[in-house]
Amino acid sequence: MKSVQQIAHDVQSGATTASSELESALAAVRARNEELNVFLYVDEEGARRQAQSVDERIARGEPAGPLAGVPIAIKDNLCTRGIPTTCSSRILEGWRPPYNATVIERLLAAGAVPVGKTNLDEFAMGSSTENSAFGPTRNPLDPTRVPGGSSGGSAAAVAADMTPISLGSDTGGSIRQPAALCGLIGVKPTYGLVSRYGLIAFASSLDQVGPFAKNVTDAAMLLEVVAGHDEKDSTSLPEPSPSLVAHVEDGVAGKRIGLVRDLVDGADEDVVNAVNAAAKALADAGATIVELSIPEFRLGLSAYYILAPAEASSNLARYDGVRYGLRVDAEDVTAMNEATRTAGFGDEVKRRIMLGTYALSAGYYDAYYGQALKVRTMMIEAFANAYRQVDLLLGATTPSVAFELGSKTSDPMAMYLSDIFTIPTNLAGEAAMSVPFGSGEHGLPVGVQLLGPGRSEAQLFAAARVLEIAQGR
Amino acid sequence: MSAALRREDVAHVAKLARLTLSDAELDRFTEQLGQVLEHANDMSSLDLENVVATSHPFGLVNVVREDVVRASLERDEVLAMAPDAQDGRFAVPRIMGEAP
Fold this sequence. Notes:
The structure holds two protein chains of two kinds. By secondary structure, chain A is of the alpha/beta class. Chain A has helices spanning 4-13, 18-36, 44-59, 102-109, 152-159, 176-182, 216-226, 269-284, 300-315, 333-344, 347-360, 366-386, 412-416, 423-428, 457-470; strands at residues 39-42, 71-75, 113-118, 165-169, 185-188, 209-213, 256-260, 288-292, 392-396, 431-439, 445-452. Chain A has an eleven-stranded mixed beta sheet with strand order 1-3-2-4-6-5-10-11-9-7-8, with helices on both faces. In chain A, α2 runs antiparallel to α3. In chain B, 34% of the residues lie in helices and 4% in strands. Chain B starts with 6 loop residues before the first helix and ends in a 10-residue tail after the last strand. Chain B contains three helices and two strands. Chain B is flat and about 55 Å long. Chain B has helices at 7-16, 23-40, 75-80; strands at residues 85-86, 89-90. By secondary structure, chain B is mainly alpha-helical. Chain B has a domain at 7-43: Histone, subunit A (Orthogonal Bundle), CATH 1.10.20. Chains A and B meet through α9, α10, α11, α12 and α13 of A and α1 and α2 of B.
């Protein structure tokens, strides 16, 4: 598969066309989509129209944008005008949004060609893409295993060489964890760096849109396009998109990188080995590795599984059968609301709505929600304290390589534990990414996680590039 | 330490959240949600008396814009996606009883 840089360059120079790049992508989708269940909807018509418009711009001698003719897959919780957007839920089946998410508008303006909408855990709640109302996605590297989740479809699209890049969303690890399980770069940007306008809300104070790619530069190119202030998102950071591609080769010489014991303990041996090897590669490139412990990280899972469901219970109150999606008729409004929600939501979504409702209810608010908000403060302070000693942090992305389909579906708590290393970053609103580093059990990829303070993306990409170089890429 | 989650607690929150649960679902969800809450109890032993709560990573304040009319979504396009619409509005089943 060609890199994003190469496709955009070749399209702009006339060596190839956006239309022919798109047809190759569509052929790759046709070849494996039935087996892997990656795309819920392939927008052939819209994609051909966009590719043609890119080709026309180039024929007129106009610049067609930094992602000219680059096919891209879109997680199906991002609104696409006139194109079905389901969140992998029956409750939104058939809904066609009347507007585009800001990230979609930016992709189109940059010349990218959205190919279709990818499968996810319903409303992004899950870590394996098995909680989809439209069936699980399979890992392209081993179809008996999960691709991770919740952005499993977007990860699989890139891992199966259907598109070179894709967009996902990360609330507690939903980009980094599938990136690790599929052998990709996956980035959870600083909260507010990428607009959430048109991202269907799960937990608004934690959700963030970010890229999947096969290499660091491609991820940086995509993030540069979608990042930057958006007046339609009041939580959007005030500044324009940062310069990232220009810093990819900056290296790590003189940087201090903290190897966090609490982001490795409990992981499988193959994962621990990969993290240690990554630390050595960073040291060989001139970084100083400092071993440290951040015990507060161990409280992340508890705080997250109160806060995210609490926000979700409020955000998902809007699915009441009135304005969009499913309606199950009943004799009065209340009965209609209840019949619609009961039929429309899957088990995991119901669990989280009830958990959140409980944590926010009279008598339990202080013990659960109030306490979790304070743990969130502890987490932010723990990160800040670590960043007084080091520039970046290093750990594992997930405790294990890709697990088998069905192996955790009957035990929600076991599934939740696969996000244990990724959650702290979301709670603190900071940045982190997963970088494939070597392989583990069954020859499956292992992801290591690089974490940085808010707005440290350029430094993270530079460190990730060092890890690529160490692997001869 | 919070008390263990009871079946009637789950029935109560299901009602608040407008969800209907079967008996089997009530049993299953009570057990599963109980496990998550039990895990969350590791926070209850912490002394956080003097810690300030954070509801948002950047201490969000209200963001306002000039109060001027701007283009909005097309009404017909929005209503076309509704389960039921009538006279330019969303339509729902009746809310109150028949007039006497």
